[in-house]
Amino acid sequence: MTKLSHLPDRALSVRQPWAWAIIHGGKIIENRSLGSIRAGRMDCRRIAIHAAKSMSEKEYRWGVHKLQEHGVRCPLPADLPRSAIIGSVDVVDIISQSASPWFGSRPGNHGLVLESPEPCDPIPAQGALGYFAWKPAGDLAPLAPWMKRYSATSLFDDLPMRFKEPPAKPFGSPKPR
After folding, report:
1. What is the rounded distance in angstroms from the CA atom of residue 77 to the CA atom of residue 80?
2. I need a surface site. Which of 65, 68, 127, 171 has the fewest CB within 10 A?
3. For residue 176, how many other CB atoms are within 10 A of its CB?
4. Every domain of the chain and the residues it spans
5. Backbone angles phi, psi at 156, to 5 degrees
6. Which residue has the higher pLDDT, 5 or 52?
7. Which CATH architecture has domain 4-149?
8. How far apart (Å, rounded) are the C-alpha atoms in residues 51 and 59?
9. Helix/strand/coil for 73
10. Over the stretch 83-140, which tens digit does the pLDDT of each residue have?
C-alpha cells in the first residue's frame, strides 16, 4: 500500500461507490461539469482520491447496478470507507467527449481521464469541493442504519446483487438545455 509520504497533497472528493471504482474497479473517467472543473482548478496531475462522507442507499444501489454493467462487483456498503483518502491516480486529460462507457451522457458533461490507480489504507480526512489540500483528520464515517442491512451473513455471499428492475437514478434526469 502507498505510504502517507508518497500521496499527493491535493485530493478530489468522490462519492462512494465511485471512489472505490476509480481505485479498484477500472473506472477511467470521473465525470464533472466544465464549471466544476474550472471552479475546482482541476488540471492534469497526480491526485489523491477522497471517498466522500455521504452515500445514500439509492446512490449505492445505482452504483452497484452500473458497476455490474461494466462487469465489476461492488463491495458491500460497510466495506466502502467514507471520509477518507483511499488511494491516488493520475489525471492525464480533461475531455468533453468520449466513446468510453464510463463517460456520462449529460449535455455539457466533461471528464477527468484517470490512469495508474494506487490504493492505500484508508486515511481519515475531511473533504472539500474541487482539488483541495488534504490532511489526516477525524475518523472514518460511521455506518448508516441502512448499510447494516447489507450484511455478509447470507448463504449466498458469493453471488452478485440482483435487481428485478434497474434501480432509479439517484439524481434524476438531466435538465434540458
Report:
1. 5
2. 171
3. 5
4. 4-149
5. -115, 40
6. 52
7. Roll (2.30)
8. 14
9. coil
10. 999 999 999 999 999 999 999 877 778 999 999 999 999 999 999 999 999 999 999 9
